[in-house]
Amino acid sequence: MGLEGIGASVVRKEDKRFITGRGRYVDDIKVLGLTHAHFVRSPHAHAKVKHIDMAAAKDMPGVVDILTAQQLVDDKIGNLICGWAVSSKDGTPMKMGAWPAMAPETVRFAGQAVAVVIAETKNQARDAAEAVVVTYEELPVAAGIKAAIAPGAPQLHPEAPGNMVYDWAIGDDKAVSDAFAGAANVVSLDLTNNRLVPNAMEPRAAVAEYNEAEEHFTLHTTSQNPHVARLVLSAFYNIAQEHKLRVIAPDVGGGFGSKIFIYPEEMVALWASKKVRRPVKWTGDRSEAFLTDAHGRDHISHAAMAFDANNKILALRVKTYANFGAYMSLFSSSVPTYLYATLLSGQYNIPAIHAEVIGVYTNTTPVDAYRGAGRPEASYLLERLMETAARQLKVDPAELRRKNFITQFPHQTPVIMAYDIGDFGASLDAALKAIDYAGFPARKAKAKAEGKLRGIGFSCYIEACGIAPSKAVGSLGAGVGLWESAEVRVNPVGTIEVLTGSHSHGQGHETTFAQLVAGRLGISVDQVQIVHGDTDKVQFGMGTYGSRSAAVGMSAIFKAMEKIEAKAKKIAAHQLEASEEDIVIENGEFKVTGTDKSIALAMVALAAYTAHNLPDGMEPGLKEGAFYDPTNFTFPAGTYICEVEIDRGTGKVVIVDFVAVDDFGRLINPMIVEGQVHGGLTQGIGQALLESAIYDDNGQLVTASFMDYAMPRADDVPSFRLSHTTTLCPGNPLGVKGCGEAGAIGSSPAVINAITDAIGHNRIEMPATPDRVWHAMQLHQAAE
After folding, report:
1. How do residues 416-430 score in pLDDT, each as one tens digit?
2. Three-class SS of residue 352?
3. Is residue 1 scored above 50 in pLDDT?
4. 300 and 320 in contact (C-beta within 8 Å)?
5. 96-118 mean pLDDT
6. Is the whole-model pTM more than 0.90?
7. What is the pLDDT of residue 2?
8. 323-339 pLDDT, tens per residue?
9. Helix or strand (DSSP H, E) at 742
10. Rounded-to-integer distance, Cα 439 and Cα 457, Å
11. Is 458 helix (H, G, I), strand (E, B) or coil?
12. Which of 283, 294, 274 is nearest to 220 (CA)?
């Protein structure tokens, strides 16, 4: 593909503006007459709103207006929705409690808004919000899964008796029971997947403007999918008609799934801009982000695996309780069901699987997709179970995995997914060699002699990316299709604009998407501009999440490029008086094979727009669009091996080596892929060792700042050693699979498996803090 095409480690084009402070984020947006919003939020996790006294606040300097939840109700603004319908195993629909953008009667988590102050400056709005006096009647709190499902627990929503969202199941219960009845060995494990706060670098923000003359809204927002935001805001929330609403997501400082959703603040800002007849800006601070950004994970599971006498897996049974928080968010219903349970086969040939998932409301921040979204939870459960099985069966953990790998493709799992291609053994072999697995016993002995514990842990993960095709996800309850769109415009002088429905918030699309176009035409990436994030510029698209940008978004560009090239070849052949079949594209020129005749791309483009000499019947111009809907998910997979040392005196865990071998299919830009994997690995290690969102019994988030919520730092992670095996995905024209979430999916179980190997038992949960590890070591010593 050339020096700047597919496969080249091109330096990111967009980084120049980011590292020189010239990025344009929502908080940088300035419009005439701008006001600022600050929300009055409940300090209680569960309470009735009895009275709101705004008199003193309204008289404070700079206050434009104070708006309440009741005014939202009076204006018939709709409640927030969940966009994926999931039914219980008895066929009854999920129990969706009403989630108003501001609570008029009952608050159900600490930080839920009850009113908003609009003022001339941010500080004036904040000061006035603190002067608003809200009288609450506190209600009993269910702050965790166990509290919410206990007999007599406080009820969050009248629509959901027992606080149960759904009791969903997948798989063949009888086949699993029969397999367990005849099993030679059964391995079981109870697991908690700890709750996380996404903590993107840029907090959420919105700037809303209403043009009264045109009855038109413009919303700048920190969104991963601006078109979906516009669709939901217009179709369900009754704020504006779709053609009267423009949504712009400019530079966005990270998302990790938490900016997929439509939040109350964007809704209120739009509505308020019309109420006060001035633009309204809201920029969340970090405290608000901790309290209101959708959290991730938070499962309690029991899992059991049956083996025959030859250590082949016969069946898997899983029961999971998933914490939804106080309300159902946009994708929340799908995360612990179709994005989790359908991946429970992992890389293994498991004949029978049955999984039951019970969704639970609690008085906590709503939970939804966070980097990996269901896949990390599945990988953690399965890989912890496989490591436990190896120890219980007294076999090598690598060889137990190899014995049970899927080796024939395509492979239909018992839980919907049909894996198209892979070579799991190749990834395992490469990882074993890289980590020097044969030399581990000597390293363990050396560490013991030095007074330290050393352990090694495996994780053989698989994920489903692309979240498509639309027909398939529609049959499973998705409210929208999950295709992607692209439009390629070749300008009269030969420069190119690519309009994509994908959205970049750190993935490097402005570089990688340009590489595809540049490589096909033999031009520089500097001739290609990527346009995204503006519903008035780009035709409808589905945004970025689920590692779908390359597999779906770039495939749409590929299809549009095929149309561009076909038309351009016709024009070139006509200009050069040659056969269209003899035209090839090289180094920015259209050449006649076997001759020295050629015409530059710029001249072909100019000919398309002057239209003086086009083939008969051809329309002027050189612009083409495409929609791409994949035929299947893609399935990145790999093997991660982690080696740790633990200080006996303090419980401090040090990762001394970490090998990651991934199969992402074709790599568009290896350098960007490496960066994506580094970030994912760091987030997964953060979950394993440091991060946890903890609520007390009153529903107060006690880890609501970076003073208490431990984010991974540079000295918490090792120098990763990455490599790749390659099987090209047959389900898209580029052969790509996706890389953005893999590190977060595979790393946590590898770290915990290494720690449990070192300490000699399984009785530890994430995050494995020094305190927890030290106490776990004392338990083991006491048992001995």
Report:
1. 999 999 999 999 999
2. strand
3. no
4. yes
5. 98
6. yes
7. 53
8. 999 999 999 999 999 99
9. helix 742-759
10. 14
11. strand
12. 283
Tokens of 370: 């966070």
User: Cα Rg for the chain, rounded, in angstroms?
Assistant: 28
Residue for token pair 């290896």:
670
- The residue to which tokens 């939202």 are assigned: 72
What value, to the nearest 5°, has the Cα angle with vertex 37 and ends 31 and 39? 160
CB count within 10 Å of CB 322 equals 27
What residues form DSSP beta bridges with 642?
457, 658
Residue type, position 138, single letter? E
Label residue 654 by pLDDT band (50, 70, 90).
Answer: very high
- Which pair of tokens denotes residue 685? 């290690």
The residue ranges of DSSP E strands in 619-750, in sequence order, are: 623-628, 637-647, 653-663, 721-724
* CA nearest neighbour of 430 among 197, 76, 9, 722: 722
- Which pair of structure tokens corresponds to residue 119? 């003022």
Cis ω before 770 (30° cut-off from 0):
no
Within 522-627, where are the H helices?
555-576, 601-610
Q: How does pLDDT run across 529-554, given as a tens digit for each residue?
A: 999 999 999 999 999 999 999 999 99
Q: What is the pLDDT of residues 586-627, one digit of tens each?
A: 999 999 999 999 999 999 999 999 999 999 999 999 999 999
Per-residue model confidence (pLDDT) at position 782: 67
Are 411 and 349 within 8 A, CB to CB?
A: yes
- Which strands make up the sheet holding 589-592, listed edge to edge? 583-586, 589-592, 598-600
Per the structure block, which two tokens stand in for 211?
Answer: 């043009």
Retrieve residue 772's tokens: 């927890």
